[in-house]
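[Automated response] Your request has been received and processed.

Submitted sequence:
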Amino acid sequence: MSARGRCTKVLPSELNKVCPERGDDPATHPRKMSDFEVVPNLQQSSSSVSRSRRKAHFPSGSNEKENLISWIPENIRKKECTYFVESSQTSDSGRVVCECGYLREQHLDDAAKPPIFLGKEWDPSRHIQEMPTDAFGDIHFTGLGQKTGKYVRVSSDTPPRVIYHLMTQHWGLDAPNLLISVTGGAKNFVMKPRLKNIFRQGLVKVAQTTGAWIITGGSHAGVMKQVGEAVRDFILSCSHKEGDIVTIGIATWGTVYNRESLICPMGGFPAEYVLDEENQGSLSCLDSNHSHFILVDDGTHGRYGVEIPLRTKLEKFISEQTKVKGGVAIKIPIVCVVLEGGPGTLDTIYNAITNGTPCVIVEGSGRVADVIAQVANLPVAKITIALIQKKLSVLFHDTYELFTESKLVEWTKKIQDIVRSRQLLTIFREGKYGQQDVDVAILQALFKASRNQDHFGRENWHHQLKLAVAWNRVDIARSEIFTDDHDWKPSDLHPVMAAALISNKPEFMKLFLEQGVRLKDFVTWDTLVYLYDNLAPSCLFHSKLQKVLLEEREHTAGSKMPRLQMHHVSQVLRELLGCSTQPLYPKPKHTERPRLSIPVPHIKLNVQGSSLRSLYKRSAGRVTFTMDPVRDLLIWAVVQNRKELAGIIWAQSQDCMAAALACSKILKELAKEEEDTDTTDDMLALAEEYEQKAIGVFTDCYRKDEERAQKLLTRISEAWGKTTCLQLALEAKNMNFVSHGGVQAFLTKVWWGKLSVDNGLWRVITCMLFFPLLYTNLITFSREKRLQPMGCLARLRAFFTAPIVIFLMNILSYFTFLLLFAYVLMVDFQPTPSWQEYLIYFWLFSLVCEETRQLLYDPDRLGVVKMASLYIKDFWNKLDICAILVFIAGLTCRLIPSTLYPGRIILSLAFIIFCLRLMHIFTVSKTLGPKIIIVKRMMKDVFFFLFLLAVWVVSFGVAKQAILIHNEERVEWLFRGVVYHSYLTIFGQIPSYIDGVNFNIDQCSPNGTDPYKPKCPETNVDDKKPIFPEWLTVILLCLYLLFTNILLLNLLIAMFNYTFQQVQEHTDQIWKFQRHDLIEEYHGRPPAPPPLILLNHLQLLVWRGLLRRPASHHKLKEKLEKNEEAALLSWEMYLKENYLQHQQCQEKQNTEQMIRDIAQRVDVLAELLDLDRVKRTGVVEQRLGSLEDQVHQSAQALRWMMQALRGSGFSPGEDMPPVGSSKALDTKEIDLEGKPEESQPPYHVLARNLLYPGSHTLRFPVPDEKVPWEVDFPLYNPPAFSADHKDMAVQDPFSLSLESLLKINYNTMDGLIDRQSFHGLYAVHNGLPLNPMGRTGLRGRGRLHCFGPNHALHPVVTRWRRNLDGSIIRKSLKKMLEVLVAQYPLSDVWALPGGSLEPGETLPLKLKWILRREFWPQFQNLLKQGTEVHRGYLDDPRNTDNAWVETVAISVHFDTQNDVEMKRLNSFLQGCDPELCIRWQVLDKRIPLHANHKELLHKVSTLLGAYY
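Generated structure:
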């Protein structure tokens, strides 16, 4: 502790230096008051409040450190004692200390000198001052691995908003979805091992699943240590970083041991902290398992509890914040979890309950927790001082002697108030059914508190659902929210449904669908825009959308980014699905009203209160529903790669096969552009999964009905851009789907046309060569198989239009063309073309016309540009264009006499290309087709191999040429020497001159002048022998041959082998997939072969160009009638359900799944057996106790009977002892959520609240049993309080002097003041009246203006609640009421329009504020006609022992909606004070009014027989 006060003044240049060592003597570093400068107030941080992505919890970059170093000292302070006053107590070492607890040398220099404070007592408010904090940064626990956290030393007066800003903006914490405040014993205590494990697992589970913050005391002892160890165990068992749990320790700075190591004015990054429990003494060490520490400093040393006020304010501030996540705005809920604990823990629980914070008490943890848990099930009247005394003697046996009688009274009163708020109290019992886990108990406590909270309408149900969605706890939603207590309308779930979608919570979507949400009603255009607006920024689809918007802004030359609309989404989707599909969301015309009528900024959530509900609260005329909502949601989920969500939505789809294939296509296209490898793999795996779904559904359909299944393949799907399932599968390259037997059967059927597929190929060829055989039975047709006769012309037309026949005829034609072409090139190539050569030109012209037709053929109206791009993409079309262009170039040269020979050469090259075109014909063969694919892929391998080979060839060639030959200037011979000879060397043609032994000078030119000989190598001038280093050239040649012949060539062979194996494994699939292209080509090709095909081209030109006739029907696309399509889709959906059920059965029968299910059941069974053992033990103990009581009472009864028989008669003063167990109620499990046992408490409750409203005065605690004046209460010594109301004309004196009190006349009219009570005469003691209902814990008149009764008037104005048609709404067969309520200025609660009566007035002042003056007499008449429902004492928080409120409640009910007085009342209400809020509110038990006002409403509803 000797270095506590040290601080050095640091220059800006020293910001990045490490803090100096802290082992120096503090005397060498004295501090002066002048060293500290006045810092400004809280500055706004430069970081944005609404970040889309938070950084890690522990930022380590230099920018973060610099921001922290500059921001914290400016905004966060510490406290220092500035005046040393010697204390009567000494330190642990016996040294003199100040009243603040610190040594003299730990003070400032000025504090030890006799200043102006000399002779004055030490006063914390004057002698402790705030200064910039000197302890913050990262804390590293030495010797405990990599455990690092954040810490800061703050003043006890620091505003909570500053600390919250530090945590969320500078520490990088996400705002919590839940705040868990754990309190209890600060010293180590013993828990049962099973209870300890349950608590640890449950606490961590609720924090991890809900994204909660856990707040504790932060020290390494007691309940804080339990929480830290729970977090530690979770982190050790969790391998991913998402498992980080925010655990915040709020401790007192003056009680932290080794805190001097945390002091560093420029921040510790990190500060090394040693956890030393052995030497800590009365101080405490920080717990190493907490992630953040807030060390609260009040300038004192060794005083515990300093942090409690700031912790309470911080928790309250956080719970008032609104968090927006996933489209849901919720106020951060808070729950208090209690383990063990002493007197301070009881105060914490009491304050939490008073503030409306739910508390979870862990029974079995000891002390205070067990005291409350054991009496929580009892009626409040049975919680007596004697019972609490008995419990304390057992549970506090070590410190029971410290409990005085007054302390027992205080504990009893507080425990009564705690138990009275049963809706806020949850007891976690180890063996209680439904509460096996602490996390369930915590969440149930929050829901129970929310459910019992007063509210207007359905707000609390929606709030609970928002909490469940934010926490992602669908189990809690099923058990606590979707119960019989509330009827959910599907439309009420739409906003939360959108939130569940955005935050990717598939289980909630499944739950909402089970609750009746219809996607058709949910998905509107506005909803879709909102969903796409909330795509994750990391999503690839989001970046593509932004690119489209940016392009539109550049195109329109606008400065603002255009708002997102669905046609922007359609643009991106068309890129992904392929241009064969039509836009899914067409762009609205400029003349039309945009379909998305609400601007995007109005849709987005913000903290000020707008919500998703605004999307659905629009008039019916403005909401535009989409054509296929399931499709729209499915696309939205798939583009984000959300597997579970997409699976649930796909199960709802109708056009499921097309949807699955479209999803596969989208995912494969996105995977091509995705940069993250893991995401790419996930997308490809999901694409394959959807392909398998499509295959599964199609398989079931094909088994049921082949014809209808094949219709599904060719049906034009309006929902998916007027494409077909087959087209989608081909676009996505779904080979497994296309190679399916049903798809192949369909393609075979198309291939054979109207011919029967049973015909052999030899029969077709025979009939093609000799067509009269068609009229025999050699060829059968499909119509004839169906017993439909065909005419002669029909048979001829059906035969020659079949794709297989067209294909065979084109093969015959092409071979004839090649033979004729070869004959001309080799035999008949004359200067003047022969007729055979002209025939070739004519033939080629027909081929060019056919290629032109294919290029311009556009059945889907995609446009010339798109058709051209699709045409060019095909490899065989590229080969055709190449062959034609080369032929045209050769023909041009051939027709010019001077270039006849070059023309023949070019035409020869064209012949090679035309021969290569034959390979396309072989793709129809199951044997040769895959081999062609292998050759194409091997060509790619060769292309990449040549890059490697070129490196070795060029390097060896250049080196060889440079070594052997000097200055070869002929380019052709340079190329020969460097590339050509080096390349031939690979195949064994080694140059003879590379070795001097085989050198022959006659084979070369010495000076390089002979154009037909290479230049000679370097030789000797005398004997003409080579002089180059033969040993080097030989070594280079050997190395060259080694790497090229052995390494590279074998590498090429291995690549070829891999490619072959890869294709060979999928030979069947590849052949079946590529077969479609050939079938489709010849299905749409004119029947005549070239060159006769020109006749068909002429026919098409006349038919479509001149006559404007539409194109013929495309068999691979079929437009169905609406009725037929609806029936087909219904049949497909039925079989899809069968497929999904079959998949579920297979998953259940899976061995691994069965093992997991069995293991889970065994665990559940073991848990139930364990719980049953615990419960049975408790039941046996209860029964034994009950039996003992019954035996004891039976003995008493027998004794009484014997005494009665001995006497002459029964004594009237004696009572017969009760028969039965006094603990009968105790044996029953009382549900804390149920109603209190008493319908009304026997004594006033609100009038005994410890904190008197509107003041800091605390009442004397009065337990229920001590309320009556007749009960002796010697300890009773209440404080006195009387407020001075300067705004009141008439009020009693606020002093309790006897002279002033004797002037008051009680139990009569005292001038204008009516001091008569509705309960008769009341007692007067020492000049003060006594409250007729008993003690309140406070003397005087409080905030009331008169001693004795203060009269009030509360009109209860009601009407029936009606539908739009005027009928009365009923609930539980009872009519529902609406009551008039008001909210007055400077008040945040609603109340009945009434209040205290001023002396001599007949209407309360608050009622006059509401009504216009001219309506006052009419309202008095209404009161006279009304029914009095209450006259007497009102349990009011302002009541005292000597002043209380008595009221008259009058029911004014308007039975008809056309009541003239009611209309007049409404008209006068509209003109009242604008600062008032007045409304007609539905009357039920949850209406948020004062508790005493709700009792009046209950009486009114009972009087009128209405629902309450």
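Summary generated for your ticket: Residues 1-60, 591-614, 616-624, 1211-1239 have pLDDT under 50 and may be disordered. The first strand starts at residue 77 and ends at 81.
If you did not submit this request, please reply to this message.
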